[in-house]
Design brief:
The protein is built from three helices and seven strands. The protein is globular and about 40 Å long. A hairpin with a 3-residue loop joins strand 4 and strand 5 (82-87). It has helices at residues 17-25, 27-33, 117-137, and strands spanning 7-13, 40-47, 54-61, 67-78, 82-87, 92-98, 103-109. By secondary structure, the chain is of the alpha+beta class. 27% of the residues lie in helices and 40% in strands. It has a seven-stranded antiparallel beta sheet, with helices on one face. It has one domain (7-137): Alpha-D-Glucose-1,6-Bisphosphate, Chain A, domain 4 (2-Layer Sandwich). It comes from Pedobacter jeongneungensis. This is Activator of Hsp90 ATPase homologue 1/2-like C-terminal domain-containing protein. Belongs to the AHA1 family. Pfam families: AHSA1 (PF08327). Residues 16-117 form the Activator of Hsp90 ATPase homologue 1/2-like C-terminal domain.
Length: 138
C-alpha cells in the first residue's frame, strides 16, 4: 500500500499487543472507543475478522445531522501484526500492530478524494486517540 496520497495516523498504547488487538476488533469495545469525539456514536457494529469477512460500522452524530456506513472486506489478517481491508468504494487500508507493551498502532488509508485531507487525517487520529484513552483506562 505505497501511495504518496495515502494518509497515516499512529498511536502508542501502553498495553500488551493481545489486549490492543482485542480492543481494536471486538464490537463490544469498538462501540466504546470508535468515535472521533463525543458528538459521534456507533449505531451498529458488525465484525467478521476473517480474510474475506466483512465489517460494518454505522456511525452517526448524536444530533442526527450526519450518518454514514463504514463498510469493507478483510483482505489480509496476521494476528497481532496486521489487518488489511478494502472498503466498499475500493479504497484500501492497512492497520499494523508493532511491539508489545507499548504497541504502536498505525493506520494507513486511501482518503476520500473529494473530502478535505486534513479533516480525514484528524478524524482518524482522533479515533486512535480515543482507543488509547480507553485502553489505558482498563
Amino acid at each position: 500500500m505505497s501511495n504518496e496520497k495515502n494518509l497515516t495516523a499512529s498511536i502508542e498504547i501502553n498495553k500488551p499487543v493481545e489486549v490492543v488487538w482485542e480492543l481494536w476488533n471486538d464490537p463490544v469495545h469498538i462501540a466504546v472507543w470508535n468515535a472521533p469525539s463525543e458528538e459521534w456514536i456507533n449505531e451498529k457494529i458488525e465484525n467478521n475478522l476473517t480474510e474475506g469477512g466483512f465489517f460494518l460500522y454505522v456511525m452517526a452524530k448524536k444530533d442526527g445531522s450526519e450518518k454514514f456506513n463504514f463498510k469493507g472486506t478483510y483482505t489480509e489478517i496476521i494476528k497481532h501484526k496486521r489487518i488489511a481491508y478494502t472498503l466498499d468504494d475500493n479504497r484500501k487500508s492497512l492497520i499494523t500492530f508493532t511491539g508489545d507493551q507499548p504497541v504502536i498502532l498505525t493506520e494507513t488509508f486511501e482518503p476520500v478524494a473529494h473530502l478535505d485531507l486534513g479533516m480525514q487525517q484528524e478524524f482518524c487520529q482522533s479515533g486512535l486517540n480515543q482507543l488509547k484513552a480507553y485502553a489505558e483506562r482498563l
